[in-house]
Amino acid sequence: MIGPRKRHPSKPLFGLGVRGGKSIRPASSEPIKRKVRKPPPPDRRLRVYALDPSIGKSLDSMTINETTLSVPWDETYEKLQPGPVGEYLEVVDIDPASNKVYEPVDLNDAFLLAQDGWSPSEGNPQFHQQMVYAVGMTTIHHFEQAIGRKTLWASRGSTPVERLRIYPHALRTDNAYYSPEKKALLFGYFPSESGAGDATAHGSMVFSCLSSDIVAHEMTHALLDGMHRHFEDASNLDVPAFHEGFADIVALFQHFTMPELVRFEIARTRGSLSTESLLSGLAKQFGEGSGRRGPLRDYLKPDRKTYPEAREAHDRGSILVYAVYDAFRRIVERRTADLIRLATGGSGILAAGAIHPDLVQRLTFETCKAARHVLRMCIRALDYCPTVDITFGEYLRAIITADLDFVKDDEYGYRIAFMESFRKWNLLPSDMRTVSEETLAWNTPSDPKPKWLEGILDTDTSRFDKEKEEPKDYDKIVFKYNSDLTRTQIADLDRKNRMRLWRRLSKAFRQNPKLYAEFGLLPGVPRFKADLSVMEERPAPNSTFDVHNVRLARRVAPDGTFTPNLIAVIVQRRAVAVDPQDPEKGFFWFRGGATLIIDPREGREEIRYVIIKNCGSDKRLVRQREMASQGTLSPLRALYFGGGAKPGTALAEPFAMMHAGQGDPDNG
Amino acid sequence: MARKTRLSARKTKPSRRASTLRRPAARKTSHTVRTKPPVSPPAATPAPAQAGSQGAASAPADAKVTIRFYCQGIGDCHLLRFKKEDGSVFWMMIDCGIHSSVKGGSAKIDAIVDNVALLTGKKLDVLVLTHEHWDHNSGFFSARDKFKEFKVGEVWMGWTENPADTQARDFDKFKGQALTALQRASQRLDGSRGLSPHLSAIQVGLRQVLGFNFGAKGEKVREARDAAVQLAAKDDRKYYEPKTAPFELPVVPKVRVYVLGPPRDTAMFGITERPSEMYGIGAEAGWPLARALSNSFAMDDGKLGPGEDITAPFDANEGFDLSGFLSHGKEPPAEKTEREHYEHVEAFVRKHYTGPAAAPKGANGQHSSQKTPHASAGGQSWRRIDNDWLGASADLGIQLDNRTNNSSLVLAFEFIDSGRVMLFVGDAQVGNWLSWSDVKWTIGNKTVTAHDLLARTVFYKVGHHGSDNATLKQKGLELMTSPHLSAFIPTNKEDAKKVGWGEMPFEPLLEDLEKRSTNRVIRADDEWVGQAAGQPGFNVPFGAIQGVRHDTENGGLWVELDIG
Q1: CA B425 to CA B408: how far, in whole Å?
Q2: Which residues have CB under 8 Å from B314's CB, separation 6+?
Q3: How close A575 gets to chain B, by Cα (Å)?
Q4: Shortest Cα distance from B151 to chain A (angstroms)?
């Protein structure tokens, strides 16, 4: 205890615990200057319809009509322009069928900033622009969070496309699609054909751009196209189905990022995800408006078609969604079982009536958390997918491998849930003898540390920054983790890295032609022109191949540290006759190659996984040939609009035709 | 012997006859071993029958009917010859048309009509019009002067053509609206330069759909149908539907006619009336796609004023006229705030739609130093959507085509003694076929279902020229289990290819049909039909088929089947 001070009460007590304190004096009595760190720009808050306008038209659900999305500020380099036109998206509201241009919304308008944007309204085109922008940015955000890097749009030829264009009122029909040709989303509107029991009045206008599900779905098509350009080639039935199914997965799980919606539905269904609810259905108003008497797709009500039977892309794709949604429901059940036990005194049987708000809150929290995990698992797996000719079974392998790389301990059994569900839906890879994490994870090559891999990463990231000429044979990959690159600069760096890796690989192939086979490539493949004719022969040991993608992903090492993962995609294409007996029937591209997942750290270079699609596989060739001669369109559409006499030629707008064709009569 | 001919025919180049490529007789077949050599058709042996082949050849005595199929390619015209009680002939013609894309089509039709005239003495007891498509009734227009000399007893049609039926009238009106809208869409696409591959494909497809509704010179299918209808007096125009009680042909003994389609399915034909439609928002009848398109054209023409287009997304005062910005000729408003407002939007449109593309910017707002040209360099035309909304016309075209085909009159002829059935489906599509599951009739004290009839079918006129979804698999072909099954496909693969049809005939269907009928499938473009000495690739007589003959003088104008 310190006794009462005798002299000046505010004078410091000398020598208190400081050795030699008496002789040390502060050099200056001025305080060290510091200031409060300026927080990063907040999220931009924008109001949207939680699902679509039909929710607010019913007394039962009117309270969850709207929600406010928080999207990234999107002004890293430039102010958000009217449109909105930002770093990723440009909304251009032109409606040629009505001969109209609707005034672009300026989200930086002070009044709009003060009130989270326009309030939801069907009759205000500026709100429509705001909503497509907000939902679109949300989807982009989910992707970037999952893959840990900035997303890029598919390039046009070899030139990068900076912004995806969105036309909210482009079509006068019950359709919306992503146009790979225009790198744009086109949304339609139409007067509703709904019936008496529907929430949507007959004849009232239905806007596909006001359905957050449809926006998320189309946005996912665009994002997926940016990552996997060849998933547009319908080389087997699963490929177009994967595009559709994956887009539905993202749209579906985006429901669970709106806690107020989840909370409302959990309270209503007393915590059961297996009760009919708004959460499991997609595009309710659109479905009612096009005369379906309910949502466009409902993932609680299984379709009667099984995996082998379902040939149409949406039908088949929805089987993938059922599998993922089932897995998710099981995971949620597991995560919330203890809460239900706690709330019921261990009986697990809830009392009649409404459940306690605290329980609703906790269940909502767990459900949303699981949904976030599952969505990230699904998106992250894209980096681990084969680059061409994907099947649902291979997607499961990608999910499992990616998750192994990220979460060491699978405490809640996410991976088991996925395996169980895929098994239930008959989606396992056809060549598996046993089903377990080890067998499903991708393999490593027999020589995981080949010589050509050594020193693949250049640690000097600023080597060619100042327009210094890059040597013609430079073959190291440069990543600028530390600089703040625009997406255009990233695309530019990508292009250079692909070239550098190509140089490195072709050197390795020339030295050891046996290496081709290890990557599923063939020697002696000529260079082709875009019209599938030969441009230049490349006799063995030479060949033609393309480094399609070089990207950096991160993973969590078992010790908990973040580690870079280098993903390299090598593709080769061959022009193959649809009918070997009859070259008149045309040719198609047959692609193959490898996706390599590499640990690029200096001195520890290793190919961790290799995913091969053999360019010389006869089995795949037969399958693709069958697809090329049959196509994926409904018979009548194929007859008139399927590109006619040239089977195998790709559809110009695959998504436009497929989405529209859903209502076509098909063959019984 | 015939087997050898067929094998050698595989190597010979298909001969061009009457500008129609015929398919080689050899086909894939699982029946490589024949237990007995094929017998040439008995009727082909007597010389007089061969020589006078333009006239009536003598059919075997016990043949119940002889059907002459004209082989114009993509188009239907079948002449049925029943025997009356008094020994004279009862003539029935089913359709007479050729698709407008086939070159020299009307000359072919003229030859057919002359042949029919010669054979029948210009007298038809019944004329059946299956549905309103050019490839089924162009002849009544292009050869109308020839048909004027014909005496037609009755004309049979589906209920959908009946002007006294309210639902049929609606259907008729909506079809007309759809057709007009499609024509406009097609014209607009034709008038646009630099169409994207997607829109070019739609342009081509649209022409094909319209080819079923218009002649090569734009003649309307309506005129052709009406010309045919008018061949019979008003009281002799009969409209049938599945609820029509099966009836026996008046003077022909023991032949009963069943009507399987078109069904009275308002949803299938897009004529559903819902209570809300009467007084709801936008109470305007028609198919939604047709309405959306035609309203847009009407706005263009000034036929609809601002605010009158109920398919427009917003109130008329929302937004600015796009054409004003595109043509650059429009004066901005005079009033200051309005003008600023206008100029603000105009600048946006120029920057993001019509004008040259902006170069991408770097991290610090400077133009990036990258050397690769930006994707949008040289304008934004590749991203514009001026005509993409016309893509809906593909959906409408499919809808119209499907609905018109589904309005096909489907007739089954039953020979009462043997129970054998001949099935003429017009171009009925999936929906029409599916509806047969619910169709049944009471004959005496017995119930007959449509599926019974399918099981007893010994002859099937293949629908829609052998395309994929005009012959149902599970509830159609698989129910045709008679070992006597035979079929005729009015198609020509080369012609279909020329106009860019995907698969007509559809190979898997053809294979299945050949398997089920033990190769008794005749195609209008069969090579043997075009050769004087040609032989069919199957045994005759066999079961219900008692004889096969073909035209040996005019390069295979027709092929004839005796069915007993």
Answers
A1: 7
A2: A100, A102, A123, A125
A3: 21
A4: 38
- Interface touch A635/B468, C-beta < 8 Å: yes
Contact B42, B24 (CB under 8 A): no
Judged by a CB distance cut-off of 8 A, whether residue A660 touches chain B is: yes
What integer pLDDT is reported at residue A667 of this predicted model?
A: 36
Give CA–CA dist B508/B503, Å, rounded.
10
First to last CA, chain B: 27
Q: Considering only the beta carbons, identify the residue of B209, B314, B434 that sits closest to A640.
A: B209
Asked if residues A388 and A313 have their Cβ atoms less than 8 Å apart, the reply is no
Q: Does A640 touch chain B (CB under 8 A)?
A: yes
pLDDT tens figures, B216-243? 777 889 999 999 999 999 999 999 999 9
Look at A307-321, A476-490, B314-328 and tell me which has the smallest mean pLDDT: A476-490
Q: What is the DSSP letter of A94?
A: E
- Phi then psi for residue A456, to 5 deg, are -75, -30
A113 contacts chain B (CB < 8 A): no
Q: How many CB pairs under 8 A join A and B?
A: 284
State the amino acid at position B292 in one-letter form: A
Task: For residue range A516-557, list pLDDT tens digits in order.
Answer: 998 999 998 999 888 888 888 888 788 899 998 898 888 887
Predicted TM-score of the model (pTM): 0.86
Q: Which of B452, B432, B434, B433 is nearest to B442 (CA)?
A: B452
Report the residue from A83, A99, A162 with minimal CB separation from B360: A162
Look at phi and psi of residue A242 and say left if phi exceeds 0, alpha if psi is from -120 to 50, else beta: alpha
The three-state (H, E, C) secondary structure of A350-378, written as one string: CCCCCCCHHHHHHHHHHHHHHHHHHHHHH
> pLDDT band at A127, cuts 50/70/90?
very high
Question: What 3-state class would DSSP assign to A48?
Answer: strand
Decide if B374 and A160 are in contact by the 8 Å CB cutoff.
Answer: yes
ipTM of predicted assembly, 2 dp: 0.86
